[in-house]
């Protein structure tokens, strides 16, 4: 009969248990041995493939305590087989399976730039389609007075506007105040650019760099982070790391939710 020896390892020398995390596509983790940080793009038997911010792929074995997630050790495991129907939308709202998009309302939400519109679509797109709210973008806040005049907001056609880096006392704030009315709401977030509204940890960086005044902010960010100076590609990398509202800063979340409530309120 085989004899089994007791485990005499002291408790304080035994490795602590770490959580098991499904290697879902888009999950950003770091290999502690090499420092390679990237998003999961594929998980197969015994291995996981990561893609870093430059598009480079590396394959790693699925080992216990093999990765860092937000700085903490985890064990990646293969995701459950078969499609899983989400119970929440990316914004955190209750998902409505099979719901059809509502016919577009007369009300609109304008945001300051294409990147802003893409981010709003990524997180709130399902909600906006159900509510029938269309998001359009401004080329610049200087165009806002003419847009509001042409739109002619009213009880059945409310207008919401989201503006970057709205600081009291500036030209931008004066323009916002001039067009604000009972049926037109202009809100601003504190970030220089919508890029900053994405949490650094979601992008795989420690913090958004501070760029000296007078430099193009996006180009300066690419240089400071040692990214290729292609702001379009940099934005696609950032956007690909946004999976839900949890990847965004609260100051943006509150503004967008307020604008959606405003344009969908009963007349």
TrEMBL record:
DUF3097 domain: residues covered: 20-79, 108-264
Disordered: annotated span: 1-25
The protein's name in its UniProt record: DUF3097 domain-containing protein
Organism of derivation: Streptomyces sp. R41
Record Pfam families: DUF3097_C (PF11296), DUF3097_N (PF22845)
InterPro entries with a match to the protein in the record: DUF3097_C, DUF3097_N
């Amino acid at each position: 009969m085989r004899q089994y020896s007791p485990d005499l390892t002291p408790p304080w020398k035994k490795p602590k248990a770490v959580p098991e995390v499904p290697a879902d596509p888009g999950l950003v983790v770091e290999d502690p041995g090499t420092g390679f940080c990237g998003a999961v793009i594929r998980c197969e038997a015994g291995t996981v493939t990561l893609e870093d911010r430059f598009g480079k792929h590396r394959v790693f074995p699925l080992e216990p305590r093999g990765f860092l997630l937000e700085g903490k050790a985890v064990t990646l495991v293969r995701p459950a087989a078969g499609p899983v129907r989400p119970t929440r939308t990316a914004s955190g709202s209750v998902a409505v399976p099979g719901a059809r998009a509502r016919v577009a309302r007369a009300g609109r939400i304008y945001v300051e730039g294409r990147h802003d519109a893409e981010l709003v679509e990524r997180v709130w797109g399902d909600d906006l389609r159900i509510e029938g709210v269309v998001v359009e973008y401004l080329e610049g806040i200087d165009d806002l007075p003419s847009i509001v005049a042409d739109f002619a907001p009213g009880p059945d056609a409310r207008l919401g506007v989201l503006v970057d880096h709205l600081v009291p006392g500036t030209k931008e704030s004066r323009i916002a105040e001039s067009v604000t009315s009972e049926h037109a709401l202009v809100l601003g977030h504190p970030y220089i650019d919508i890029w900053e509204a994405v949490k650094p940890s979601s992008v795989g960086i420690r913090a958004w760099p501070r760029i000296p005044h007078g430099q193009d902010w996006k180009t300066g960010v690419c240089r400071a982070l040692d990214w290729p100076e292609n702001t379009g590609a940099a934005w696609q990398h950032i956007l690909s790391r946004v999976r839900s509202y949890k990847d965004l800063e609260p100051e943006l979340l509150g503004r967008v939710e307020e604008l959606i409530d405003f344009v969908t309120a009963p007349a």
